[in-house]
């Protein structure tokens, strides 16, 4: 895979797309590479900075899943994979400015969000709800194959209701809800990814959740929890 300027995409082999099977955890266990050396995130970043470009593949593998979910959640639609590839390349070239000891995920997701916004604006199109929902389900299925069909159908219906309700929020409210609940980021990570003070994250999240509650009412059913936008979410700011 090569970038628009012809440079090799770090961590990706020629002719292959991004592996969307990676999770959002640390490199040591999500990367799946047993090298006999320190594979902690900080160590891998240090190796990349030292000139070992191949080590970047571990970061790509560990964070592609959440990066792809972020891209589709913020409206990249069919361009999500291109957005993620571009974000990883820009992150690679910017590692010299990455602060030692800082978590990589929120820093990367901030780049993904910027790339998504630029892509949507340049395409001159609105966010596609149906396409985004399809990407959500395709990138990271939330219903196991063994689930009862009736339960699965109900879960999908609730998710569709939530997705539609999110489109009625302001851009800032959509961002904070997406980070906290769809991407399951902690409050500190959300603040870092969005570049907001934690107090701003709390206030905008609370306003967004109240608006969602008014919009959805009891449509999500008694089983809903904070991750689906209920009042429990406002009380769950300190869960991480």
Key phrases:
single chain; 240 residues; mainly alpha; 0% strand; globular; disordered N terminus; disordered C terminus
How would you characterize the overall build of this protein?
It is a single chain. With 240 residues, this protein is an all-alpha fold. 57% of the residues lie in helices and 0% in strands. It contains eleven helices and no strands. The longest helix has 20 residues, at 104-123.
Strand count: 0
Q: What count of helical segments does DSSP give? A: 11
Distance between the termini: 36 Å
Q: Approximately what portion of the residues adopt beta-strand conformation?
A: under 5%
Topology of helices and strands:
Blueprint (H helix, E strand, L loop, with lengths): L26 H4 L10 H9 L6 H18 L6 H14 L10 H20 L5 H11 L9 H18 L4 H12 L4 H8 L3 H19 L14 H5 L5
Helix pairs in contact: 3-4, 3-5, 3-6, 4-5, 5-9, 8-9, 8-10, 9-10
Short account of what is shown:
By secondary structure, the chain is an all-alpha fold.
């Amino acid at each position: 895979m090569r970038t628009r300027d012809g440079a090799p995409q770090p961590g990706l082999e020629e002719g292959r797309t991004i592996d969307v099977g990676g999770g959002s955890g640390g490199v040591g266990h999500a990367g799946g590479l047993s090298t006999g050396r320190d594979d902690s995130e900080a160590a891998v970043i240090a190796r990349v900075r030292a000139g070992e470009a191949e080590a970047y593949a571990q970061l790509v593998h560990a964070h592609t899943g959440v990066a792809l979910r972020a891209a589709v959640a913020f409206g990249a639609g069919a361009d999500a994979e291109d957005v993620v590839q571009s974000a990883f390349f820009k992150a690679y070239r910017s590692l010299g400015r990455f602060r030692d000891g800082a978590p990589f995920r929120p820093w990367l997701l901030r780049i993904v969000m910027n790339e998504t916004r630029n892509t949507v604006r340049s395409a001159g199109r609105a966010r596609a709800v149906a396409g985004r929902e399809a990407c959500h389900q395709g990138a990271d299925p939330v219903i196991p194959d063994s689930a009862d069909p009736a339960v699965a159908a109900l879960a999908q219906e609730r998710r569709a209701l939530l997705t539609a309700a999110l489109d009625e929020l302001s851009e800032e409210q959509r961002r904070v809800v997406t980070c906290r609940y769809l991407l399951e980021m902690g409050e500190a990570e959300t603040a870092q990814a969005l570049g907001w003070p934690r107090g701003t994250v709390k206030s905008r999240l609370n306003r967004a959740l109240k608006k969602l509650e008014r919009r959805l009412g009891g449509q999500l059913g008694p089983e809903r929890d904070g991750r689906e936008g209920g009042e429990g979410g406002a009380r769950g700011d300190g869960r991480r």
